[in-house]
């Protein structure tokens, strides 16, 4: 509930809106609490009261047949008194009180730290059923592929004139140097929109097509039919 309240701190909402309209978690918590209280009250009426009545009647019949309390009641009373005295001796000591206070402060610290730093996530582990066979490939993907994978993203912020042979040569040189580094997966694991564009219209499959001629007029059609959605990271500027 505290996390749900905290995540709406930056939204322009009044206290009533944050508590009632926006916080689905709070609504679910209140609804569940109301159901629990109703069931508890119902069980008190139909189970707890009759159980006490039956137990009282049985005790009265037994007390009429026997003189004084039974042996097991005397033994239970002795044990409970002994445990109570030991407990009082322990909690009445000053260093025990200090220890409990320090432990409580540590507990509060980590609790509040976890509340304010937690992040909600929805992954396949939570979506898939527990007996699903997809958990095995998902664990391999999470524990090995993504854990050991380092993705390098390169953004070119300056305008790139693709008709300039000198600039394109520099581009292919840098790309080749990057993809031939040790432990690099190479061109097969790279997504370079310029290489895809050149190879598609040149009918080529070269990793570094130095000699291919580039036609910028085909860019619009390329991005329109591109299955990798490169257009989300490319900004075109047409020269007049």
Structure description:
By secondary structure, the chain is mainly alpha-helical. It has a domain at 165-237. It has ten helices and no strands. It has helices at 2-6, 15-22, 24-65, 71-91, 94-117, 124-127, 135-148, 165-179, 193-202, 219-225. The mean pLDDT is 78. The chain crosses the membrane at residues 28-47, 95-112. It is found in: Membrane. Belongs to the patched family. Keywords: Glycoprotein, Membrane, Transmembrane, Transmembrane helix. It is a multi-pass membrane protein.
Summarize the amount of helix as a percent range: 55-70%
Structural class: mainly alpha
Shape: elongated
In terms of DSSP E residues, the strand content is: under 5%
Low-confidence stretches: none
Amino-to-carboxy terminus distance: 58 Å
Name the average pLDDT: 78
Main sheet summary: none
Number of helices: 10
Number of beta-strand segments? 0
List the quaternary state of the chains: single chain
String of helices and strands: HHHHHHHHHH
Radius of gyration: 36 Å
Give the arrangement of secondary structure elements.
Blueprint: H1 2-6, H2 15-22, H3 24-65, H4 71-91, H5 94-117, H6 124-127, H7 135-148, H8 165-179, H9 193-202, H10 219-225
InterPro entries: Patched_domain-protein, PTHD_SSD, SSD
GO cellular component, one term: cytoplasmic vesicle membrane
Domain SSD: 19-54
């Amino acid at each position: 509930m505290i996390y749900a309240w905290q995540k709406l701190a930056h939204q322009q909402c009044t206290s009533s809106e944050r508590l009632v309209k926006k916080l689905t978690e709070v609504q679910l918590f209140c609804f569940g609490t109301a159901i629990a209280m109703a069931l508890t009250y119902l069980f008190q009426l139909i189970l707890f009261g009759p159980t006490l009545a039956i137990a009282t009647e049985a005790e009265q019949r037994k007390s009429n047949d026997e003189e004084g309390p039974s042996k097991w009641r005397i033994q239970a009373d002795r044990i409970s008194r002994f445990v109570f005295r030991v407990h009082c001796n322990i909690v009445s000591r000053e260093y025990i009180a200090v220890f409990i206070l320090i432990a409580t402060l540590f507990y509060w610290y980590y609790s509040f730290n976890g509340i304010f730093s937690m992040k909600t996530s929805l992954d396949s582990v939570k979506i898939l059923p527990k007996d699903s066979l997809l958990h095995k490939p998902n664990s391999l993907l999470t524990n090995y592929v993504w854990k050991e994978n380092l993705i390098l993203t390169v953004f070119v912020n300056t305008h790139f004139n693709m008709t300039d042979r000198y600039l394109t040569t520099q581009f292919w040189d840098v790309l080749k140097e990057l993809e031939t580094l040790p432990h690099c997966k190479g061109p097969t694991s790279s997504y370079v929109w310029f290489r895809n564009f050149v190879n598609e219209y040149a009918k080529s499959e070269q990793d570094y097509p130095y000699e291919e001629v580039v036609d910028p007029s085909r860019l619009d059609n390329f991005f329109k039919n591109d299955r990798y959605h490169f257009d989300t990271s490319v900004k075109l500027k047409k020269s007049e």
